[in-house]
Amino acid sequence: MGVVTSSVTKAPKQDRSRATRQRLLAAAVACLAEHGWAGSTVSVVAERAGVSRGAAQHHFPTREDLFTAAVEYVAEERSQALRALPVQGRAAVVAALVDLYTGPLFRAALHLWVAASNEEQLRPRVTELEARVGRETHRIAVELLGADETRPGVRETVQGLLDMARGLGLANLLTDDRTRRERVVAQWGAVLDEVLG
Prior knowledge:
Layout: H1 2-35, H2 42-49, H3 53-59, H4 63-83, H5 90-100, H6 104-118, H7 123-145, H8 154-174, H9 178-196
């Protein structure tokens, strides 16, 4: 009987711990997107998540642990959302990929990249994370587009699409670039239909 009680009390504690961790990750991305690296501390994130600084440090011993985990977590959420997209034509896929680079995740990741360019201990973690997220995004794009990368130029075309999407995300940081973005997305859909067949 005591074993049952023990396992029953552990499950809710694990659930609470998982929920706390997810609140911290979501709060970290939101803080990074809104305040940048300089304005995003563990204390600010903990307050936003509604947990103590000690609880935050229990889950993430360092600031770098917290923010790289946060960007990775949200990137995985976005990857899952992309994978779940029904194939609706290439223009819709292009639009979904561009959306990936125009939201708060991209803004948070950008702040993390800028910080990593100046912070020696953060740089290798962000470089590795960006490489992994980039490979996964490329793989998902290939699947969604039905692209055959054994054909010459197809891999480069898909990578060009992702680079273009990132560029549109950068342009969107300063101004609402929606009208131009919609025209570019439509054109890239047409280009992909021609190149990918």
